[in-house]
Amino acid sequence: MKAIAYKKHGGREHLKMMDWPEPKIKRGHVKIQVHSIGLNPLDYRMRRGEMGPLTLFGPCMTGSDFSGTIIEVGQGVQNFSVGDEIMGKRMWGTAAERLVVAANKVTRIPSNLDLATAATIPLVALTAYQMVHEQAKVQTGQHVIVNGASGGVGTYAAQLAKHAGATVTAVTSYRNMDWMSELGADHTIDYTKDNCCTGEATYDAFLDCRSNLSLNKVKGVLRPKGVYVTLEPLPSLVKDPFVNLLSSKKSRVVLLQNKQNQLLEIKRLIEAGVLKTFVHAQLPAKEIGQAFEILESKRTRGKLSVKILDELG
Ligand SMILES: NC(=O)c1ccc[n+]([C@@H]2O[C@H](COP(=O)([O-])OP(=O)(O)OC[C@H]3O[C@@H](n4cnc5c(N)ncnc54)[C@H](OP(=O)(O)O)[C@@H]3O)[C@@H](O)[C@H]2O)c1
Question: Which CATH architecture has domain 2-121+277-307?
Fold first, then answer.
């Protein structure tokens, strides 16, 4: 079969269509015909070789989100059948014609979305869920600020915080102000004009989806016992244990975990109309370089979807 992969780390020019071994069905797994993949910053950071030991091996298939249709079911799988349309995420490597994936890590796609849109959901929605509910533990009546609210993670973080009963302030540029209000944000800050780390307003949780700040930088706008959550593991993982000992305001980091129960809850919230999915553009596999160019500009509104089905032949 064919896959989109790279043999050398670096720029988008290294992404090539390659022959790839056909994956074999395993117990507890399902085999799918991939329909689409959603692109994430993780994919270009892996390709550039910026993810330390994770990037030592090659050649590497790109992609970490996927949607597709089940074509074979492994022994011991009870809850899925051939023909089911599913979505999920892997550590890396989803841009192939077919994948074999663990049945206990995927869900059916939301009934109100198509496969191309569903492919963009898992990684960012799970990340946002873990920011809001596991790290910040957002409660009704709290005030939450979301930095990078117009990006893949941010759109879900803002909506989930709102759904948890918080007042939400969205930080983005002037390009996305109106859209953020439509998304449900109560207040907006244009980072090109105003500094979200200073000012009168204070917050119970600072969700730094852009992850370009730190507890130290946002301390002045955090309430006593407030929580700062970042998505950038370093230097947070090293510094946080010491920083948190000395401060009533805490710094936390999300290291994404692939939890099926949370993905099921996200699917339920999408079907209930609570969560909306925003796709900036859908492109065919032959334009994956352009898709990454958009993503790497860091100007994406929501997500990018790349169609794999019938595009790799
Ligand atoms: N730790 C983990 O497990 C984990 C999981 C997922 C993601 N991540 C990381 O989280 C980060 C965000 O991911 P993502 O998918 O949300 O990225 P993304 O979709 O590429 O984010 C793009 C958005 O960022 C906004 N933005 C750009 N510069 C900004 C600034 N200075 N201040 C505020 N907003 C700004 C842009 O809005 P404007 O166009 O208005 O500027 C755009 O809408 C990435 O670094 C990713 O690697 C980590």
Answer: Alpha-Beta Complex (3.90)
Question: Which residues are within 8 A (CB) of 268 and not within 5 positions of it... i.e. 6 or more apart?
Answer: none
The domain limits of the chain are 2-121+277-307, 124-253
Between CA 168 and CA 36 the distance in angstroms is: 32
Q: Is the dihedral of CA 102, 19, 311, 288 positive or negative?
A: positive
* Ligand 1 midpoint to CA 81 (Å): 36
Give pLDDT tens digits for 181-227: 999 999 999 999 999 999 999 999 999 999 999 999 999 999 999 99
Mutate to test the pocket of ligand 1, among 135, 210, 257 (most ligand atoms within 8 A of CB): 210
pTM of the model: 0.97
Q: Ligand 1 pocket test: which of 231, 251, 257 has the largest number of ligand atoms within 8 Å of its C-beta?
A: 231
Residue 78: count other Cβ atoms within 10 Å of its Cβ. Answer: 7
Q: Which tens digits make up the pLDDT trace of 126-144?
A: 999 999 999 999 999 999 9
Architecture of domain 124-253: 3-Layer(aba) Sandwich (3.40)
Decide if 161 contacts 146 (C-beta within 8 A).
yes
Nearest to 263 by CA among 252, 255, 253, 271: 271
Residues near ligand 1 (Cβ within 6 A):
40-42, 123-124, 127, 147-148, 150-154, 171-173, 175-176, 191, 209-212, 231, 233, 254-256, 295, 298-301
User: Which helix (H) or strand (E) covers residue 202, if one does?
Assistant: none
- Count Cβ neighbours within 10 Å for each residue of 217-245 and write b for 16 or more, e otherwise: bbeebbeeebbbbbbeeeebeeebeebee
53 band by pLDDT with thresholds 50, 70 and 90: confident
Q: Mean of the per-residue pLDDT values for the chain?
A: 96
